[in-house]
Specification:
Blueprint (H helix, E strand, L loop, with lengths): L1 H5 L6 H33 L4 H50 L2 H4 L4 H43 L1 H48 L1 H6 L3 H26 L2 H25 L5 H43 L19 E8 L10 E8 L4 E6 L5 H6 L9 E6 L2 E2 L5 H7 E4 L8 E2 H5 L8 H10 L3 H4 L9 E2 L8 H13 L5 E5 L7 H14 L4 E5 L11 E6 L2 E6 L1 H7 L1 H11 L12
Parallel strand pairs: 3-10, 3-11, 6-9, 9-10
Antiparallel strand pairs: 1-2, 1-4, 4-5, 7-8, 11-12
């Protein structure tokens, strides 16, 4: 874990080295001041020597200034090092997430990744700054103050050792119990983020069903759980303060009582007693600081482990050693393909799939919910790898291609389409970043999107809100289809992506495909037979298997499932999941 995180210090090594150096210098200058103060009292004030007071006083001013300067520089370099470290860790996590396949992403919840990129990295940043500054300052201050105290008077300094020992035991017990609660907090943060994310992304559904009260209750529950954990932890940590004050006041009383007797007996001077009291505060406050450091570091360990999980996660799907850099055509072959999402799963999602699709062919895919239609087409662009068998594109196994090259040639339009913040043009150019305005307009004309975009106030410069919240579902689908067409792919997959458009618009889009991209192999997943009956061939999926494969006419004659669906939909009694009436 340390090696993984340490690699991200990189260009901030200088700041990471200078910070503890300046913190140690600050401590050294601070430790000199009580010693100089004792000299002023004993050799200046009591002796009436003003020259000595001025001389030593000047040294004290210089020491204080240098200590202040060292502290400022330590703080500055500490901020640079910790903020830079956090920036590198966050970037490394984000970059690694971009390499994840769908199976990798399935291991982490979206809310969990958000928590790791925000809260966990912030905890690690604070801990790193604490390590560079306080982890150097507190031990150095403790050791230096103890050495100076023993140098001043061994008998009184022994009181510190007893206090430090007892206080250390108590603080260790508090920290150990507290960590149990902190380790549970992050899972609660995941739940909180999940609640916020779901509510914001589905706010229309929440309002449509008047479920604001339920969502508030769910958020309050998640927030309340974090509150309870922090209250328990912070209540224990709060014991540090009264225990520390009790120890400090006890030490002051003992030092004052013993010191006064020693002054009367001429074995201790007033200046030395003043210095010992200053060192007492330094020692005990350093111990207090150390206890907080341990809390912060232990808290950050839980965050660090969660961060390293993401950093160490290796993409399941990677490029071969010598990848193929060109997809020759849009032919697709499924050769005895079996597939399951998890290696240890008992059942296959897809079972013994054998298909041979020719370049330029339009293939419809029909099947009920859970029949693995989307799983089938996800294998074409290698969003997942097959468990057994082969999927070939352009006559080559998809695992032989460079991933980026393959996905550039396979354009996918999902049912649940995603638009990003930016103008309509900026969203369209996800398909081709170099596309001209005219090419974007032409793609939108093919997707029947130009008819509503041109009516918008700013046309193609209209700003799309986050998630496309200011356009309808059908409009969103058509923009996404246009975006896919701009890629000029060899294979186009429409995963139920015309479900939100009317039948007439659906027919226009299909006609445009046939006329404008005849050489592109097209897969159309649909629930309506009217959307796929004109396809060259149609695949009927049932329980992860191909139940039928042929033309509309052939399936009507030979496939019972297809025939039943057709009769059901033509009679107007329902869709795929609602069988026709007898």
């Amino acid at each position: 874990m340390l090696k993984t995180l340490g690699a991200h210090i990189r260009e901030y090594k200088k700041a990471s080295i200078l910070t503890p150096i300046f913190m140690i210098l600050e401590v050294l200058f601070e430790m000199i001041i009580p010693f100089l103060m004792a000299s002023i009292i004993d050799k200046g004030i009591e002796a009436g020597n003003m020259g000595h007071i001025y001389k030593v006083g000047a040294f004290m001013v210089v020491a204080a200034f240098l200590g202040l300067l060292a502290g400022l520089l330590g703080g500055r370099y500490g901020a640079i090092a910790s903020a830079g470290f956090a920036k590198n860790v966050r970037k490394a996590m984000y970059d690694n997430i971009q390499t994840f396949s769908f199976s990798n992403i399935d291991k982490f919840s979206t809310s969990g990744l958000v928590t790791r990129l925000t809260t966990d990295v912030t905890n690690l940043q604070n801990a790193y700054q604490m390590i560079l500054r306080m982890c150097m300052r507190a031990p150095a201050s403790l050791i230096c103050a103890m050495c100076m105290a023993f140098y001043t008077n061994i008998r009184i300094a022994s009181i510190y050792l007893i206090a430090v020992f007892l206080l250390g035991i108590v603080l260790f017990i508090i920290i150990k119990i507290t960590m149990k609660y902190f380790n549970q907090v992050f899972k609660k943060y995941d739940k909180l983020n999940e609640s916020v994310q779901e509510n914001v992304s589905a706010i229309r559904v929440v309002k449509a069903y008047a479920r604001e009260g339920h969502e508030k209750e769910k958020f309050d529950t998640a927030g309340g759980n974090i509150y309870k954990m922090f209250v328990k932890a912070e209540s224990l940590i709060a014991l540090n303060s009264p225990i520390m004050q009790f120890t400090v006041y006890t030490c002051i009383l003992l030092i004052s009582w013993i010191g006064a007797n020693m002054i009367v007996g001429s074995s201790l001077t007033t200046g030395e007693l003043t210095a010992l009291l200053s060192y007492c505060m330094n020692i005990l406050m350093s111990l207090m600081m150390l206890s907080m450091i341990f809390v912060m570091i232990t808290l950050s360990i839980a965050s660090a482990e969660r961060i390293v999980e993401v950093l160490d996660e290796k993409a399941d799907i990677t490029n071969p050693e010598n990848p193929v850099l060109e997809v020759t055509d849009g032919s697709v072959v499924f050769d005895h393909v079996n597939f399951r999402y998890k290696k240890d799963a008992e059942d296959y999602v897809l079972k013994d799939i054998n298909l041979d699709i020719h370049t330029g062919e339009t293939v419809g895919i029909l099947g009920g919910t859970g029949s693995a239609k989307s799983s089938l087409v996800n294998l074409i662009s290698r969003l997942y790898d097959v468990t057994d068998g082969q999927v070939k594109v352009g006559g080559r196994d998809v695992r032989e291609y460079d991933i980026e090259v393959l996905r550039d040639e396979v354009s996918v339009v999902l049912q649940k389409n995603v638009l990003f913040s930016g103008t309509v043009l900026e969203n369209l150019r996800w398909g081709d970043k170099n596309a001209t305005r005219e090419e974007c307009i032409h793609a939108c004309e093919l997707a029947c999107a130009d008819e509503f975009i041109s009516k918008m106030k700013d046309g193609y410069d209209t700003y799309i809100e986050q998630g496309g919240s200011n356009v309808s579902g059908g409009q969103k689908q058509r923009i996404c289809i246009a975006r896919a067409l701009l890629k000029k792919p060899k294979i186009l997959i429409l995963d139920d992506s015309t479900s939100a458009v009317d039948t007439a618009t659906d027919a226009k889009i299909r006609k445009a495909f046939a006329e404008e991209i005849p050489g592109t192999t097209k897969f159309i997943i649909a629930q309506r037979i009217s959307s796929i009956e004109h396809c060259d061939r149609i695949i009927v999926m049932e329980d992860g298997m191909v139940d039928g494969f042929g033309t509309h006419k052939e399936l009507l004659e030979n496939n019972e499932i297809y025939h039943d669906i057709y009769e059901s939909q033509m009679s107007g009694s329902g869709d795929f999941d609602e069988p026709g009436k007898e």
